[in-house]
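User: Can you help me understand a structure? I only have the sequence.
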Amino acid sequence: MNIASVIKQKRSYGSLATPTALVIILLAALLRLLMISFYYPTTMSDESVMDLMARHIAYDGARPIFFYGQAYMGPIEAYLGAFFFHLFGSSIFAVRLGLIIFYVLFLWTMYALVRLLYSQGLALFTLLLLMLGNTDIFDRQLKAIGGYPEMLFFGALILLLASQLALSLPPTPEQRATLSLRRLGLYATLGFTAGLALYVDQLSITFAIPALLLLMLFCWRERFSLQVLCGILMFLLGISPLIYYNLSILGTSAPGTLHDIAAIQGASAFQMAQEQIPQINKFIGTFFISLPSITGYAPMCSSTSIFGFGSTGTLSLPCMLFQGMWSLGYLALLVSALLLVASPMRRVLRIYRQHGASWPYLVSSAMQDDEYRYNVRQAARAMLLLNALLALAIYIASASPATNPGTNTRYLLNTLISLPAILWPLWRSFAGITKRTTKSFALKGSKGYLLPITVLTAILLTFITGTIICLESLPQAKAEFVQQERLVNAMISIGATRIYTDYWTCYRLAFQSEERITCANLDSDLRLGDRNSNRYAPYLTSVEHARTATYVFQIRSDQYKILQRLLPRVKNRYKIYRVGSFAIYQFAGPIHIFTQ
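Assistant: Let's start by predicting it. Here is the structure, written out as tokens:
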């Protein structure tokens, strides 16, 4: 085999890479369409709030700035869902279509980013993994609970645009003096995307900071240019809803964005103190529950099977062993990837100290240009790893992994953007062995395949297993939706349309009934919930002015048990209905004994 044949093979492989990527992305979209057609994952009230926002946007002319009941998290999903409502009608399926669009865009952007910074082979393997998932990953992708699929797309796009700007830096003063429409467009798109990402979800800071550092390192000389000014203006445009809201409430008692974010963190910290949860649970929750779940480990155990979060029986040890080994492997790969970029980054920083911000413009010859592009790619890889480190650091520093690491796994979703950087040490070893074996036409190095190919195969099989588990749950998800439909129809038939219930029941019933049912939420002591619980104030007003009082609770819930104890004190006549796992108490007139 001569050199020309090898080059021809590489070109042939390169020409097949993009069509292969498109096939994988198409399969990923079809897989998710299948899932949402079975109403998987099972919806819940947080998603129903987003669905209701879409209804209000589509049919009532509402223009919400944030998710109902809070001063953060931009509702792009609701606006996109409103568009699909006009095409397909009001449904959970219509809102989730928008999420699939965002995820398809994320996959294509990740393919472009990984191909630019690493290799086509790793780009395709990354797509294959991202096409699959587990319960937690699919939940974040397919539930419209605010910002997650679009945040992944925005994050990948921001890092891609920053890498392209650094790689395409004009090398000569004459070229820099000429206005480049391409660079102007890149800066404008980057600025708007970064602003929009921070408006949608403030966790976007984990990839916004690395992108900014990359630009400061390589494009500092452009800081006073028209291109950068355009990027800043577009950033302000993207984040303008958040700025507008916080300026509009100055001098009022309305809570601002920082207040609400601090309140959530404070509530978790208060729970830790109240329940005397030890600090070590932050690390246990992160490394034995949250990190394995969000990075693709097929769910074997629930959170309650982990020591410190529930059971300490015989199941606890194997759960911690397997899930801990997965996290340990992830951290080992993270450290290996950091070591790979450490030496190139030291060289880049040394040159930067010697020449300052002028060093990127010292490129003149082709050899120097190749070296510059190599340095940019290494720095961009380091920024991908920084994204994962920031996400982990922010998560561990909060009380979230100690109070509810299962539900709060979503706060680590940004680590998926760093997946190719984590896999690179394995892929680099595998690809290097492949090249050496090809050149020697022998199997002398074939033993070197064993470790990287075994680990990569194990990772792929784990993702496949998680996906199969989710597919097996499709009939159950459809059955739960049908059961909820029966409950809605039964309630409408008996006139139970203004109800007191719990948060996790309320908005599901409201949306599934097309708002023929409205609700007020009670806490576990049967007292009216706060703003975070009663997210849509008009519902609360509607229920409080109803002529009758109706209470709907799941049998065996805390509210149901308290209601049973208080019933002897009620003088009003009432009827009891049971539909599936729910009990409906319909009183002849309004009563106040429960909601005081």
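Now, to help you interpret it: Strands lie at 498-501, 518-521, 549-554, 574-579, 582-587. The longest strand covers residues 549-554. Let me know which part you'd like to focus on.
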